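User: Run a structure prediction on this.
Assistant: Running it now.
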Amino acid sequence: MVLLAIVPQLIGHTSINWALKHLKTSMIAITILGEPIGASILAYLILQEGISSFQGMGIILIFLAIIIASRKAGKHL
């Protein structure tokens, strides 16, 4: 339980803080939406959890939104 609290805090939040120094805050906010995608994929691979069709559509929509937002943010740099 301690590792579940410490490791995500150290890796996740430290990398977000590092990214805030190098990228726009709007881009960081958009990419944080990818966290459930990563969690779903890891649960599928490691825990053999199923992904329903609605979850799959949600993953695709969020992923497309991140791609579209990152392209728009890149044009304003």
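Residues 24-77 form one domain.
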